[in-house]
């Protein structure tokens, strides 16, 4: 049982965390979050997805939520107003794309209204049940404005992405930090921006702190928010390297078993009922 009387905020990742194996939100999860909202909790969904994609999923909760997207580069309020925005400069992205990148790797730039990619990727497209945020296949050498919300590399071969990660890290000085949101997804973020930075902005707006927050996640783009929360919970289906890096944090069940909702029911809502 969570032993804080000041708990006010629930923050959760989407893929591999709140979403089930079908990349959607179950009825049970929706019911639990609706009850948390009725009890006065602030709900934050923090994801690497673009906001046009993520908002279609958070709508399924049928409650107002803060939406942190593109790993912190965008924040939308519960009223869907843009609260914060950050874009990576074109020259910085050009420096990365000029590296010797394996042609088989899928490269993705998140723009405001669409995403640019060098090839059609069935695995990547499967994350969108409906195409609210459409791709455009391009030759990046012919794109003059490479400024973007986020830069992403996708490949089924994790070792190939590790080699690219090492290549990127050799570029000094670099404005980027890299992380694996999934073993097949290598994401690049500006060093000043991440999910925890965005959540801190929301907490300040809501007169709350990380010490009043529970966070759930499964990827390295969740690491900082998990570490800073009063209670950080790692999904059992998370990457083992994340579990090893945060050995002091509790591991709960799998995303396909509604583990986030079950934890919140047992450790938060049941506590309220007993008071």
Quantity of strands, as a count: 14
* Helix-residue proportion: 25-40%
Given helix and strand content, the structural type is alpha/beta
Written as H for each helix and E for each strand, in order along the chain, the element string is EHHEHEEEHEEHEEHEEHEHEHEH
Shape: globular
Main β sheet profile: 8 strands, mixed
Number of helices: 10
What fraction of residues sit in β-strands? 15-25%
Compute the CA-based radius of gyration: 18 Å
- Which sequence of strands runs across the widest sheet? 5-4-3-2-1-12-13-14
Oligomer: single chain
Give the overall average pLDDT: 91
Gap between N and C termini, in Å? 13 Å
Query: Which spans have pLDDT < 50 for at least 5 consecutive residues?
Result: none
List the helices and strands and how they pair.
Blueprint: E1 9-12, H1 14-18, H2 27-38, E2 42-46, H3 51-58, E3 66-69, E4 74-76, E5 82-85, H4 90-97, E6 106-110, E7 115-117, H5 122-125, E8 135-137, E9 150-154, H6 158-169, E10 176-182, E11 185-190, H7 195-205, E12 213-217, H8 223-228, E13 231-234, H9 240-245, E14 250-251, H10 259-274
Parallel strand pairs: 1-2, 1-12, 2-3, 7-8, 12-13, 13-14
Antiparallel strand pairs: 3-4, 4-5, 6-7, 6-9, 9-11, 10-11
